[in-house]
């Protein structure tokens, strides 16, 4: 689908550009002090969450591949049965985002050299990549510290702590997944009403109610 192709193209183009042109942990401003392109790499899940070392990384990549296969199958089934357009769009966004991050974790370790604060990565280095197949790191770059300060003292547990909103660094694929999940939740109820309109009819709860309905319909 066009949505999947566009998200994948934008996601991978930006990741490759950042990987080849940024030193690790370097940043440039795009919205003053409220938005940056800040290059980091994530060996875990979305928004920088880690998952259990090298074996965890391998299992996470394999899980992503299995999950994407299931999502792709579900999307094809939804399209064939004429599912609600909003649901198709939402699942397409989720699939595109998952595919974008799978490409990183599957292939980037093989095709790129390691990035560092002092050396930019090289595509297809002669000495080989920085990690084996399926062990690559996902490239993240969007950082929006919209508010930074100390939390009020009256807040339990975290009162007085330094706080940044929004702290996680993410990429286009992460954003597509998040938007896709939000759209899915918003349109799911409308899609159910369209596909099964009889669900909106509440069955009579008593014998008197059933008699009234039967009389009105002429079936008593």
Which strand order do you get reading across the main beta sheet? 1-2-3
- Which percent range describes the beta-strand content? 5-15%
| C-alpha end-to-end distance | 52 Å
What's the helix-strand series?
HEEHHEEEHH
**What's the alpha carbon Rg, rounded to whole Å?**
24 Å
Helix content: 40-55%
Count all strands and give the number: 5
Describe this structure in words.
The chain is mainly alpha-helical and 220 residues long. The chain has one domain. It has 5 helices and 5 strands; from the N terminus they run αββααβββαα. It has a 3-stranded antiparallel beta sheet with strand order 1-2-3. Helix 1 packs parallel to helix 3 (85-111) and helix 3 (85-111) packs antiparallel against helix 4 (172-195). The termini are far apart.
Provide the descriptors you would attach to this structure in a database record.
mainly alpha, 3-stranded antiparallel β-sheet, 50% helix, globular
Q: What topology does this entry show?
A:
Elements: H1 2-21, E1 27-29, E2 36-42, H2 53-80, H3 85-111, E3 138-143, E4 147-150, E5 162-165, H4 172-195, H5 207-217
């Amino acid at each position: 689908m066009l949505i999947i192709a566009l998200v994948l193209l934008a996601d991978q183009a930006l990741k490759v550009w950042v990987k080849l042109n940024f030193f690790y942990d370097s940043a440039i401003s795009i919205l003053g002090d409220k938005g940056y392109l800040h290059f980091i790499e994530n060996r875990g899940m979305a928004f920088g969450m880690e998952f259990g070392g090298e074996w965890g990384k391998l299992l996470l990549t394999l899980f992503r591949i299995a999950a994407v296969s299931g999502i792709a199958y579900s999307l094809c089934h939804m399209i064939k049965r004429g599912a609600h357009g909003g649901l198709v769009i939402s699942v397409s966004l989720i699939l595109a985002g998952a595919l974008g991050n799978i490409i990183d974790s599957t292939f980037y370790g093989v095709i790129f050299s390691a990035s560092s604060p002092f050396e930019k990565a090289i595509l297809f280095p002669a000495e080989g990549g920085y990690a084996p197949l399926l062990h690559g790191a996902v490239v993240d770059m969007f950082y929006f510290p919209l508010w930074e300060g100390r939390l009020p003292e009256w807040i339990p547990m975290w009162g007085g702590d330094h706080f940044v909103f929004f702290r996680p660094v993410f990429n286009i694929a992460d954003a597509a997944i998040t938007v896709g999940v939000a759209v899915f939740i918003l349109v799911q109820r409308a899609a159910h009403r369209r596909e099964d309109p009889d669900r909106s009819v509440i069955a009579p709860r008593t014998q008197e109610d059933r008699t009234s309905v039967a009389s009105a319909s002429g079936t008593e």
